[in-house]
Write a structure and sequence with these properties.
The protein is of the alpha/beta class and 327 residues long. It has helices spanning 53-68, 83-96, 112-120, 146-160, 177-192, 207-220, 232-244, 260-268, 279-294; strands at 42-46, 72-76, 100-103, 124-128, 138-144, 166-171, 196-202, 224-229, 252-256, 273-276, 302-305, 308-310. 37% of the residues lie in helices and 19% in strands. The strands form two sheets. Strands 2-1-3-4-5-11 form a six-stranded parallel β-sheet, with helices on both faces. A six-stranded mixed β-sheet has the order 7-6-8-9-10-12, sandwiched between helices.
Length: 327
């Protein structure tokens, strides 16, 4: 999900989805949806959070592909990553009956019924970024390999702290497929590296709560060596706590995603590494899979996109991996 990822072919989703590599993707070539007098398809992309750079970058990739294929694409989303806010957005989209909907569910359970209604209304469903406990109505699921991304974060943090020490995860909340997978992957990677894993704390996407969680952990474990922050606000709050404790830079932070704010935090030394996803590729693949389903062509049930590790040292050469605030 967003703030709230990313390597070739691997198991990424919390429900055990197996991501297929690029060799399994159908061709994206060919004419537009409207060429030869065909139907002008209408699609909607429903983000997890409308104003987040991860989803804005996803929309940029989707819009570019939609334009290339002669598809009309609308972009919608809630103001917060919350099922109670996303549900009315989905209900509004369902009333318009688009040909296809690309959607990032904000909850693996709560969004099942609203998305199922979209499918029952005749819209082809493509799950992008996040998924559902029961994704059977979707023609394709496209996501970063979040579990592998968590493992990579553990490997990077292990290097940053010198190969040993106590580490923790600051996460959003349970029930989000992507961040659940990141935490799972990090735990696996941390234990494999021999680190002292202290578990995870949740912040409800609130930097103040993230700071409080880190402060509480520091009170019990003043020798804390590293933190994996599963999204932007988790990293922001963790950095605030370390600054207040006079340990900023001494305790290392690996964050997730590469939006403008995350990159500024990396430059400022608030975090020491970022795990960057490929949201534009997810958007592009989403349009292609929806179009294939509408045209009666084969679709790829699960697609995993890649990720990269960004540090101060390689930032200049990693510009293509950074997220956009506008197309």
């Amino acid at each position: 999900m967003r703030k709230l990822m990313a390597a070739g072919c691997a198991a990424a989703l919390a429900v055990g989805v197996v991501a297929c590599g690029s060799d399994d993707k159908p061709s994206t070539g060919g004419g537009s949806a409207s060429s030869g007098g065909g139907k002008q398809y209408k699609m909607t992309l429903v983000a997890g959070v409308k104003g987040d750079e991860f989803y804005l970058t996803m929309n940029c990739g989707a819009q570019a592909e939609a334009k290339a294929k002669g598809v009309t694409l609308d972009f919608q989303g809630p103001d917060q990553f919350d099922a109670s806010q996303q549900t009315p957005v989905v209900n509004s989209v369902a009333a318009k009956k688009p040909d296809a909907v690309l959607i990032a569910p904000t909850d693996t359970k709560a969004m099942y019924a609203p998305i199922k209604q979209l499918a029952q209304n005749g819209s082809k469903i493509v799950l992008v970024d996040t998924t559902l406990d029961d994704p059977s109505m979707a023609v394709s699921q496209i996501s970063s390999d979040n579990e592998k991304g968590g493992e990579t974060a553990a490997q990077e943090l292990t290097k940053l702290i010198g190969g040993k020490g106590k580490v923790m995860v600051v996460n959003v909340k349970p029930g989000i497929s992507t961040t659940d997978a990141r935490a799972k992957g990090f735990e696996t990677g941390a234990k494999a590296a021999g680190l002292d894993y202290l578990g995870q704390q949740f912040d409800d996407d609130d930097p103040a709560k993230a700071a409080a969680a880190v402060n509480a952990t520091l009170a019990k474990h003043p020798d804390l060596a590293g933190i994996f922050a599963a999204n932007l606000f988790s990293a922001e709050g963790a950095a605030t706590a370390l600054k207040q404790a006079g340990k900023l830079g001494k305790i290392k932070i690996v964050g997730f995603d590469a939006g403008p704010k995350q990159v500024e935090d990396l430059k400022a030394g608030l975090v020491q590494a970022l795990i960057a996803q490929q949201p534009a590729e997810i958007g592009k693949d989403g349009v292609d899979q929806a179009l294939a389903a509408l045209q009666g062509k084969p679709t790829t049930k699960q697609i995993g996109t890649a990720f990269s590790v960004i540090t101060k040292d390689n930032l200049a050469s990693s510009q293509d991996a950074l997220y956009k605030s506008s197309c």
